Every structure is written in structure tokens, then in C-alpha cells.
Amino acid sequence: MIINNNTRTQILNEALPYIQQYYGKIVVVKYGGAAMLDDSLKQAVMSDIVLLSLCGIKIVLVHGGGPEINAVLEKVGKEPKFINGLRYTDKETIEIVQMVLCGKVNKDLVELLHTNKGKAIGLCGLDNGLLRTKQLSPELGYVGEITAVNPEVIYTALDNGYIPVIATVGYCYESGETYNVNADTAASRIASEIGASNLILMTDVKGILQNKDDESTLVHTIEASEVPLLKKQGTISGGMLPKVDCCFEAVRRGVEKANIIDGRIPHSILLELLTDKGAGTMIVK
Fold first, then answer.
1. Quick one: residue 155, left, alpha or beta (phi over 0 = left, psi -120 to 50 = alpha)?
2. In whole angstroms, what is the distance from residue 188 CA to residue 40 CA?
3. Whole-angstrom Cα distance, residue 53 to residue 24?
4. What pTM, to 2 d.p., does this model score?
5. Taking a C-beta distance cutoff of 8 angstroms, is the pair 121, 159 a contact?
6. Cα separation of 49 and 55, whole Å?
7. How far, rounded to the nearest angstrom, does the alpha carbon of residue 106 sit from its chain's CA centroid?
8. d(C-alpha 130, C-alpha 169), whole Å
9. Beta bridge partners of 246
10. If you ran DSSP here, which 8-state letter would residue 30 be given?
11. Spatial contact of 279 and 265, defined as CB atoms under 8 Å apart
């Protein structure tokens, strides 16, 4: 599609107030789903993040890596197992999770950001006690819930112009064990602890729909106080429930806005942050 100069001007004019609004603020992006698996989508996300960083917006990228973990498990003859949507993690699996998330996936994303002329640094929850955890449930094995966040290393990276790229593996100082942490939950908690203005969760759905079978019924904005009623009515259900809960918790803890966006749409981060219409559902106080 060819864009004429008038259209380009309109796009920039629409984006300018939002760039000014977010300048100097922290935005936490949880990156996962189709946007991690499709090379063109991955490239679009990385270029969007670099662009926002160059506009003076402080981006923190929190990532998962489920498909990559599954691929390695299959290579060593272990079948992935999930309980209520969370990965059952035995001792061997947590070692694979740490190797894949903190190693290959994390460093691949850092390199992609560098390729797009961005400054990035790879971190995980083990670095300087960034994510302190305890066991979530014995039946899940080495799956953790966050007990505390030490934001010092994130602030240091941001203050020096870097994009922190965070793998969600945490550590329990009491037991000396490493735990796998759900990336949505980690992004929500990190956003609230570092004073982020926005939390963005990238998913494989358009957002919250009034009618789950009709994407034209997308709800663009809801207040956090409306969430319990929408759950009761069934508007928020199934796989959307834990994502909305993460957004609700982030807003409850002080994050100004939490956004659920469709990572299958190229440049959905820019559409959500820098346009009037947005690209998903925004939950506000």
C-alpha cells in the first residue's frame, strides 16, 4: 500500500500528543503468543519497541517462551504437562526452562533489538534478586509466585538508555530453589513495582469481546470496577480470565492503564499507544 504525504502527516500529527504523554514514562510489554513465532511479526514488535524507546518512552520487555521450551522437552523425550493452564515443572524441566528462557530466547530477543539499532540488555529474575519467589503449589512442582521485586537493576538499565529484556525465572532465598514464573503475572507485578504508566499484554485474541464469536464487538475501554460484573455476565471467561486478572491487579497496584492487544496484528503496540482508536482493550482505574 502506497501512503501519500498527507496521510503520513495525519499519522504523525495523531501520534504526537501520545508521544508527549508517554515521554519519560515506563511501559511494560509482555511479549508472547503468535508474535513470538512468526518472524515478520517478531521483527515488527522489535522495531516498534526500538521506535518507542527512541521517542523517549522507557520500555521494559518481559517475555515467555513456551513453544521453545516444549521443543527442547520433546528433544529429550519429556512430554509437556499443564495443570489449570500452568506448566508442571519438575527438577529436570526447571533446568531446561532456565536454559531456554534465560539463555536462547532472552539473548535472541536482545540481538534482534540490537539489529534494529536499539540498546538492550538481557536479564532474568535471578539477577540481583529481581524476582523473589516461593513455590506456588506442590502439585505444580517448581512453579513460583512472586513474593518481592527488586527493581534496582531495571532502573539502572533504563537510566542508562537500555531496554531491559526480562526472562521470568525467579529464586527463593529460603529454599535455594529456582522457580518458573508465569510471564503475564510477572509482567503485572513488575509494572506495579517500577511505577509503570502502562502494562501491555500481547495475546492471540483481539481483546475483550461483548460477543466472543464476533470480533467487531471489541470493548475498547473498561474501568477496573466493571471487571467483576463482566466476569459474572460471562463477557470475560476462559483463557481471558487470567489475563484480565493480571491487568486488574496491575491497575489496583497503581499502574495507570493495562492493555490487552492482539499480537497477530503487525505494529499493534504502536496502534494501541499512539492512535486515538487503539488496537485492543484498555483497563483503567
1. alpha
2. 27
3. 9
4. 0.93
5. no
6. 10
7. 13
8. 10
9. none
10. E
11. yes
Three-class SS of residue 149?
Answer: strand
Residue 278 DSSP code: -
pLDDT, block means (10 residues), the chain with 285 residues: 63 87 97 85 94 97 92 91 86 95 96 96 96 95 96 97 97 94 96 97 90 86 93 88 94 96 92 88 93
Cell numbers linked to 41 = 511479526
- φ, ψ dihedrals at 83, nearest 5°: -125, 115
Evaluate whether 33 touches 68 at the Cβ level (below 8 Å).
no
Nearest to 177 by CA among 128, 124, 132: 132
Q: Write down the number of H helices and E strands in the chain.
A: 11, 14
d(CA 230, CA 257): 18
C-alpha cell of residue 251: 491497575
Cα 149 to Cα 15, 56, 185, 206, 234, distances in angstroms: 33, 24, 12, 30, 33
- Per the structure block, which three cell numbers stand in for 6? 498527507
Residues in the chain: 285
